[in-house]
């Protein structure tokens, strides 16, 4: 059984964060583990409170897992502040972690800031360079590069410029684009496009978390990056098709079990 770790925040309503990640790992036939960086009081309508975990506790959680268990892939989600980001980057280097997927979570679908503005610089300086693949949505790519991104051509240039910041590859997601939901992968050599007709739903809470976790699970299973993203795109599309309303706001994607 391949083992996959998520380093991310807890989402009390279960649609995003650690909860979405663990469901995805299980659905894709891998064994999931978690390092919690923050606890959020969150529902489909908003994020009402955030309590960050002390960086030393984040470090301890990472150490005790890597000291004991062979981890085949790791995904990093919500990391809200500079000290937590520094700690994670240091620990991943110390344990020579492999198959590192960084989802640079900045803002929730309900519009709440999940990262302190000053932490962005640290994310760029220390976490992007250790990533095998970084998965920004349009907004996050805009914040990282400090320019507007509105077309597929802009996404290609953004993926190339993000790779220049240090990660081995960048997947710029077009979930917030007009028209098809097309994502652009640049691996330092060439572009690959993952194109999907847009599904008419507002229940997209947790799409980014689920997608990056599915990429990590497929990398853990030994797939190449291009194959892992293809498998993850099929998985997230199915999960969005299965999404449903659970409250008054943005509902979650729904997972279905796909054993390998
Ligand atoms: N309405 C939709 N129909 C089909 N695919 C979508 C839709 N919304 C998002 N996606 C896809 O879901 C994945 C997550 O993307 P996105 O929503 O942009 O990320 P985030 O949750 O980080 O904002 C991407 O593959 C994107 O293309
Ligand atoms: C703990 C946590 N992590 C990540 C997200 C982003 O997910 P989304 O953009 O789908 O709201 C979230 N809302 N909560």
From TrEMBL:
Pfam families: Phos_pyr_kin. One of its GO terms (molecular function) is hydroxymethylpyrimidine kinase activity. One of its GO terms (biological process) is thiamine biosynthetic process. InterPro entries: HMP/HMP-P_kinase_dom, PM/HMP-P_kinase-1, Ribokinase-like. One of its GO terms (cellular component) is cytosol. Keywords: ATP-binding, Kinase, Nucleotide-binding, Thiamine biosynthesis, Transferase. Residues 11-254 form the Pyridoxamine kinase/Phosphomethylpyrimidine kinase domain. NCBIfam families: HMP-P_kinase. This is Hydroxymethylpyrimidine/phosphomethylpyrimidine kinase. It comes from Thermanaerosceptrum fracticalcis.
């Amino acid at each position: 059984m391949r083992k996959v770790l998520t380093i991310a925040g807890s989402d009390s309503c279960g649609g995003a964060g650690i909860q979405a990640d663990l469901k995805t790992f299980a659905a894709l036939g891998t064994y999931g583990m978690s390092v919690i960086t923050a606890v959020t009081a969150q529902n489909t309508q908003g994020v009402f409170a955030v309590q960050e975990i002390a960086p030393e506790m984040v470090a301890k959680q990472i150490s005790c897992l890597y000291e004991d268990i062979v981890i085949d892939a790791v995904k990093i989600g919500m990391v809200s502040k500079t000290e937590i980001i520094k700690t994670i980057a240091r620990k991943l280097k110390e344990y020579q972690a492999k198959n590192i997927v960084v989802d640079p979570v900045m803002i929730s679908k309900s519009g709440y800031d999940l990262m302190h503005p000053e932490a962005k610089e640290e994310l760029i300086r220390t976490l992007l360079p250790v990533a095998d693949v970084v998965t920004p949505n349009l907004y996050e790519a805009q914040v990282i590069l400090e320019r507007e991104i509105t077309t597929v051509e802009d996404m290609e240039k953004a993926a190339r410029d993000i790779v220049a910041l240090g990660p081995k590859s960048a997947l710029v997601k077009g979930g917030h684009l007009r028209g098809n939901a097309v994502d652009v992968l640049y691996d330092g050599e060439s572009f690959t496009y993952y194109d999907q007709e847009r599904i008419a739903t507002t229940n997209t809470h947790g799409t980014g978390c689920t997608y990056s976790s599915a990429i990590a699970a497929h990398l853990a299973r030994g797939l190449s990056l291009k194959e892992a993203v293809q498998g993850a795109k099929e998985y997230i599309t199915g999960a969005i098709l299965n999404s449903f309303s659970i409250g008054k706001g943005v509902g979650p994607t729904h997972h279905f079990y796909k054993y390998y």
